[in-house]
Amino acid sequence: MVVVEFGYLYYELGRIVLTPQQVVYKLSTELQCIVCDYPFPIIAEIALGETWTRDPFDRLIVSHAKANGRAGLVTRDELIAEHYASAIW
Fold first, then answer.
1. Tens of each residue's pLDDT in the chain, 89 residues
2. How many domains, in total, are found in the chain?
3. What domain range includes position 56?
């Protein structure tokens, strides 16, 4: 879901200057961050309980991190940081 959001931010909103593929590559090579392949049905089930935001991207991204045992989540989003203790930025 995070790669889809990168696409939305790049192609539709123009809020980031790198393509989704470039962002994923930079995160991988520079910070050793990876996009996890955890099963989506489990993530979606966890997302049902995320009522702190109406943004479906944010619900799924945070739920994905939670599904992985509260993995670190790189984000600049202040609302996510307020609701997810393992947010990193």
1. 889 999 999 999 999 999 999 999 999 999 898 888 899 999 999 999 999 999 999 999 999 999 988 788 889 999 999 999 999 98
2. 2
3. 38-89
